[in-house]
Amino acid sequence: MDIKDIERGIIECIKKAETQLPADVIDALKKAYEIEEGVAKTQIAAILENIDLAKTSQRPMCQDTGIQTFFVDVGIDFPYVQQLKTCITNAVKTATKTIPLRPNTVDPFTGENHKDNTGNYIPYITWDITNGSDVTITAFPKGGGSENMSKLGMLKPGVGLEGVKDFVVEEMRKAGGQPCPPTVVGVGIGGGADLSLKLGKKALLRPVGVRNKNTDMAKMETELIKRINDSGIGPMGLGGKTTVLDVHVEVAHRHPASLPVGIAVQCWADRRAVMVIHADGTWEVN
Ligand code: SF4
Fold first, then answer.
1. Mutation to probe ligand 1, out of 62, 265, 272 (largest number of atoms < 8 A from CB)
2. Which of ligand 1's atoms lies nearest the C-alpha of 146?
3. Are 72 and 65 spatial neighbours (Cβ–Cβ below 8 Å)?
4. Which of 30, 153, 174, 240 is most deeply packed, by most CB within 10 A?
């Protein structure tokens, strides 16, 4: 495998995520534009113009280019697993200079900024093992404003699913305009504290407008979309019909004494791009 070529592919993947929103997100924003009026319509128009400018100029769509986050599915027969982490880290360092990206990694103790978007645990990579010999890398740069609105609720199981829904709606009401709405909200229910938050974030990888295959969970998603949008928070918190573009729910089994709910929030800059690497070292960015 040509390591430098793979790094080039990962840089292309990061650049695509930073400069081009996926079609499902743009479609949802265009639908929001159709139904909004007044200042809300103006805000969505500005967001859509921003998206166009980012694509044509090949510049990041937001000044906050995020914490470099990746979800990597590694086929069990992929022959170059050992090199992948180094490839991703090197690609982040180079992408920081060439795209360029804002240096966003700060040491919590010293305040030192590493200036290359790497540091302890960063880039943050979630690894999963899958069948086959391909590797799928999803670049998911995560902005701080929306990340700050993440929430963990260790609810009492007695509150049931109604309590879960009330918790999510209340937290999104409290978030108001801070996560740069319209947002996409990922809700992880069950597991332990860490798993619920992880599920919430992974739920954000599902395309906007795609419902959970489980009909009960799909029903909860639809209800949450309506209830959060009924809040009237609207685009950028300035009032309107569209506070969320979508809500995605995922579940894990839980301890009988626990009902964890992890909320992950993604802003209108719902950035993600996917790269597939084959066993022979060829790749494509989708
Ligand atoms: S929340 Fe999103 S749109 Fe708002 S500043 Fe952060 S990255 Fe940019």
1. 62
2. 1
3. no
4. 240
